[in-house]
Each structure stands twice: as structure tokens, then as C-alpha cells.
Amino acid sequence: MNAPVLTAVSAGVARITLNRPDKRNALDRATIALLISELRQCAHDPQVRVVQITGAGTAFCAGADLAEMQAQVEASESANLADAVELATLLALLDSMPKPTLVRVNGDGYGGALGVLGACDIAVAADDAKFAFTEVRLGIIPAVISPFVLGKIGESAARRYFLSAETLNATALKELGLIHEVVPREMLDACCSHIIAALLKAAPRALAEAKALISDVAGGSAANRAAASHAAAARLARLRIEAEAQEGFNAFFAKRKASWRQD
User: Fold this and answer.
1) What is each CA distance from 58 to 50, 62, 119, 190, 232, in whole angstroms?
2) Could you tell me the residue range of the domain that residue 157 belongs to?
3) pTM
4) pLDDT of 221 over the 70 cut
């Protein structure tokens, strides 16, 4: 069985790859746990100057794993809370990483994937990638990712796209501030290499201090975002056990329209 996360360190760069291409790199418990472990190791490894995250295959990350989502329909509030807190821990770790983080968005991203974009410093995406905050269509909310995403796209954009769940392309996400560069798929590596080369010219301590400065001056420290994400996890856990979310998940897996849809 292939490892769900692959990490290779070379020339100061840790390249972390979500390695479940057959599942569109969905985030199951094992993948999240391994990501947390790898990121903690990168944070303390003096050989790592920059962390890059990407996906194997044609998708970046489909969000939550479908099999685990289906199991959550029957799970207790406490079990749902435990899962949500793990994602919150992952995003907080990314957000507070003392080294620059670059996400190489090689394809579509949904749900938790957008939280990864929000928690990373720099995002470069393929121009044919698609994205959406689809949670409300399942009867839940983008709770855990919200502190990291809202910091970049702002309240106005969240009021539309958290509620409408419309599909967005990479250019739209760049306009909203969640992505920095949009390039043809074949140019992803060249663009990322250019940015990494610039980052490697900076002093490591200065980069860490610059990241801390940005967090503090921007008005919401990394600690505050982490706390907000964990608090939001409790909201999500409560919603997941209610009738509306049960209907949303059951309709999704039965490939039928949820009861509230009129189309």
C-alpha cells in the first residue's frame, strides 16, 4: 500500500505530496495525521528552508474522504468533533509554520483543500483548476477552514461563496486573494521554482520573524486563528449530527437531491 503522503527534502526544500490520486487526494484521518507529523518534522529540521505542498495526479485535493464522510453520518458529536479538531490542528500548524510555505495547486480543490490554501503563505495554481466551498449543500458549514480563508478573501467574498457554493476557477480565486499566481499546468514547476529561489535568498530567521510580524500586524495572530478554528470545529460537530446534515449527506451518497432543493 502506498503511503498517503510523500516527503522529499532537497536543496533546502521539503516537497510534500498528497499521494492518494485514486481518491483525488482526499483528506482521510491517516493522511491528516501523516501531514501533521511531516510538517512538525519540517518545522524543526534545519535543512528545510521552504515547504512545498502539492497533490499527485490531476487533482490537488477533493477535501474530506468520502468513505469517512459517510461514516460520520452515523457518528456521535464527540467523534465528529475529534475529526474536525484534527483538521484544525493541521491548518494551524501550516499557518504557524516558521518557514515559508508554498502550495503548488496542480488541480481541483474543495473543502479542506481551500483551508490549506488559506493557511499557506503562497499559492500557485494551474489555470484549469476548479474550486468550491460546497459544505452548505451537505447541510454543514466551512467551519474549520474559515479563520484561514476569511483572512485572505475577506467577509464580502465569504458572504457570497460560503453561501452560494458556486464553482470558482483559479483566476477568480486569484482575484479574491486566495491564490497568488495562475499559470498553465505545464508552467507550474517553473513558477514554483522561481518563487522558491527568491525565498532561499532570504535569511531563515528573518523569514520566520517576517511571518510573525505579518500575523501580528494584520490583526489576527496565528494563535488566535488556531483557537478560532478549534472553536469552529465544535460548531461543525454539532451540525453534523442534526437532521439537516443527515439529510444532506444521505442525499449526496444516494446521488439524489436533498429535500430542500427545488430545482
Assistant:
1) 24, 11, 22, 18, 31
2) 5-185+204-253
3) 0.88
4) no
- Please write the tens of the pLDDT for every residue from 117-161: 999 999 999 999 999 999 999 999 999 999 999 999 999 999 999
Q: What is the pLDDT of residues 18-39, one digit of tens each?
A: 999 999 999 999 999 999 999 9
- Half-sphere exposure for 125 (CA within 13 Å, toward CB): 30
CA dist 103 → 57, 81, 107, 235 (Å): 15, 27, 11, 28
Please indicate, yes or no, if residue 176 is contained in any of the structural domains.
yes
Residue 240 has what pLDDT? 76
CATH number at residue 242: 3.90.226.10
What SS3 class is residue 41? helix
CB count within 10 Å of CB 117 equals: 28
- Give CA angle at 247 (242, 248), nearest 5°: 100
Q: Considering the chain, what percentage of its residues have pLDDT values greater than 90?
A: 71
Q: Give the separation between CA 252 and CA 44, rounded to whole angstroms.
A: 41
The predicted pLDDT at position 222 comes to 65
Residues in CB range of 16: below 8 A, 6 or more apart: 5, 6, 7, 35, 38, 39, 42, 51, 52, 53, 54
Q: Assess if residue 136 is contained within a domain.
A: yes
Which has the closest alpha carbon to 35: 47, 19, 49? 19
Domain total of the chain: 1
